[in-house]
Amino acid sequence: MSVKVIMPQLGETVVEGTITQWLVKEGDRVIKDQSLVAISTDKAEVEIPSPMNGILTKILIEEGKTVPIGTELAIIEEEKAAPSPQPAPVEKKEPHSPLVRRLAKEKGVDLTKVKGTGEGGRITKEDILKYLETQKPAEKEAVEEAKEEKVEVKEPESKFTIPKYQPKEGDKIIPFTRIRKNIAEHMTYSKRTSAHVTSFTEVDMEKIVRLHKENKELSYIAFVTAAVVSALKEFPVLNSSVVDDNIVIKKEINIGIAVDTERGLTVPVIAGADKKSVLEIAKEIQTLAEKVRGGRLSPNEISGGTFTITNPGVKGNLFGTPIINQPQAAILRIGEIIKRPVVKECNGEDVIAVTHMMYLSLSYDHRIIDGVTGNNFLHRIKEILEKGEFVTST
Amino acid sequence: MRLTREFEEEVLRLYKQGKILGGVYCGYGQEAVSVGTTYSLEKGDFIFPLHRDIGAILTKGIDPNILLAQLLGKKTGFSKGKESFLHAGDLESGFFGATSMLAATLPVAAGAALKFKLNKEKHIAVAFFGEGASSRGDFHEALNFSGIHKLPIVYVCENNFYAYSTPQNLQMAIEDLADRATGYGFKGMVTSGNDIHAVLKTMQKAVERARSGDGPTLVECKTYRYHGHSEHDMATYRTKEEVIEWESRDPIPRYEVYLEKKGYDLGKIKEEVSGKIKGVIDEAVKFAEESPYPEGKEAMEDLYATPI
Amino acid sequence: METTYLKAINEALFEEMERDEKVFLLGEDIGVLGGAFKATEGVFEKFGPERVIDTPISESLIVGTAIGAAVLGMRPVAEMQFADFISCGFDQIVNMAATLRYRHGGKAKVPMVIRAPSGAGIHGGLFHSQNPEAWFFHSPGLKIVAPATAYDAKGLLKSAIRDDDPVLYFEHKFLYRRIKEDLPAEEYLVPLGKAEVKRAGKDMTIITYGSALHLCLEAAKILEKEKLEMEVVDLRTILPLDKKTILDSVKKTNKVMVVHEDRKTGGIGGEIAAIISEEAFEYLDGPVMRVAAQDTHYAFSPTLEEFILPNTEKIVVKARELARY
Q1: Is residue C172 located within the same domain as residue C282?
Q2: Do C282 and A118 touch (CB under 8 A)?
């Protein structure tokens, strides 16, 4: 009998997880509940326990890969008569009836996933039949995801290597935390996946600065968010994902605001940003930021984003080349606001004025967004901000 | 009688060659009984022989070829190999197969006789048993019922004084088994079992009685078997003197003496008979030896007349 | 018209004796008295002493005579006054009747029926209550039937008499006057070797025969209220078993229990369970359970009889147990 270890769902809206580290290797004997693999999602880091005693015969997904929920990660096989001194593992589960075993075999059901309502927790005929009903959509998904995985694996691997750096005495060695590992993997994955192109524009922020002075609650980032949302409505391809050979343009506009913390980058999401006023957005950003610092974000609050805005701070942040937050299609980075001499037109004449200026950097996936579209989108954001027309009340 | 004896000698020969499996029970010495009782029966009459009665069924008219094939366990035997020996039967030739439970055929014989009576047929049943078999309950139940209903049946007891190793005095408290008939309401007759004429005469009377509706008769034939109970029995329970005494009463030489006295050319007769018999036996041996054994799966056949 | 189980047997005998003059009856007290239970009432008056024979107390003779007459062409229906006495005719049945055709190379047959009132529940004690079918169950060459309804009693007896092999017909004496039903006026037969689904259901199968059928049907009514739909299969013929009907039902419900009045150990239920386990293992969602009499003798006192015999409640409890599994 063999059992598959699968990527669990660690939050209602969590759709994927990343294999951070395999804690056992192929061929290892494992016992029930022993930690097999460390995975992380955007929020949480979890170790998956073994569902049974046996041998981990196959690891299906390598470390670093991000896979959807339900993906098979490994196979554990029941141990046959052991020649080794280790005592034969005791099967704690109720024995399955012949009918249940046959149905499980015929339909490819992992009995460890079926809830038993018979006496002693035994799985009955009704239980397995009910389970099969619920599994129908998931099966399809799993199959599709498996297909996606296969495509990735086919990438030709580079033969170029650099000798690993050997730490010297005095060097400080900081082992990756789960989140660090996750970020590291995500970054390189993103770069490998999307054809990153970055465009820049500068924005005259005078009007926004004034609005902000009038109501300190209205933060700059809230204004930018609102502007982005408007622009996305006009250029919806920037609010999409690449799925197999399809561009999936999303209906919802959920803006993720990247927040830097000690532990690393977190991106809380303002869901349905298109339905919110600047003030609402500002307030929500504030709340989320506090939650992030307090480590109190729920999985729902960090999932489901369709576009990301990143603001790395006010030092050394003139402009930059942000990395797209997968599986999105674009990311906007807000630069510092600096007073600069700028040529402006005033009463038909060119004058130099000290102006609050801000660079916007837009990285987009050139697989599906061409230069003109990307630039136009970016320009639109600039226009909206410079015009300064916003719904500022709640 | 000669046929019987020769046949049985052939059987012994084959047995010693290992061609006959299981036990062989010889009627050696009792030929007069087997032959004499069956000699005057008609077609439609049924006999219920036991293990020592090859003579009876040969006389009744069965094909010696088939009989020998039966003994060899061949497919061409009466039971197609399913039983050895005389547990098989052949309704065509008018004999019923027995079981090893001695006297169990007696109620069945009574059943046959009952059928003849109910249907008002002129046929009769002749049931054979040894004095030992008469100790079983079936003997009592069958004779009792036959007496009540005056069934057309003759019960022939071959009393050879020994039931395997048990002498008669340990088998019953009486001298003549025929006396028991009185208890069942009919006649018992004792006869000298090694005198073919005596047997014939007695049997005629009994058959008459049965056919006319006067009911059963218990015919007791005093005789002796020269061999043991079966061929693997050394019969050490008998004295040599006793055996020799009875050998002097061998029915076949006895008959030969009679023929001579009557003026028949014994030498010529013997030669003729021998020749005929040899022919019959040789043919039987050839037939039986050349016959095939049944296939293993035939063991599952012939259990039901209407299989479901 | 409503006919009792007993009357159904009586009718079958009458009809077959009229239809075929080769049919005759023999047994103890069956003629003048009409049988200890009146099963043969009226037959002697109608057909006379040549076709209805009052025998001495000789079970071995009764069976042996029946065999002899049957081989030569008649169709006797012998009676054992109580099935318990069949042991006195055991040798004739298993060694003479069951083997006769076999020993005669298929050239003879024994078309006889032995009727035997069997079963407990009438305070009969050890020797008026037995269910001897298991002793004969593994005798090839025999057929065994055990009707549970008046309809089946008549139909099966007629079929048994017309069958060319020795048939043991166990009529359950407890049912004689206690059950009755409307029987068709026109002639009908119930085939040997075919079980019948007396009650269809989807949740659990009960396989049973004889008087236990009625207990099972009662139990099914009770369990229906607990949302347990029982399917009740009446074997009707015990040898040979109707494997197809049994296995079809098991494949349908996936849970099965066998119920019979005969004792548990060595009872037919064990063989049925083995067949199901061997041939329908992958359809079982639970073990094959049995409800049967205790492994002791059929005691006399009512409290003991109650303890020993299966009843509706014991069946219900077992069914619930199996349902929960």
Answers
A1: no
A2: no
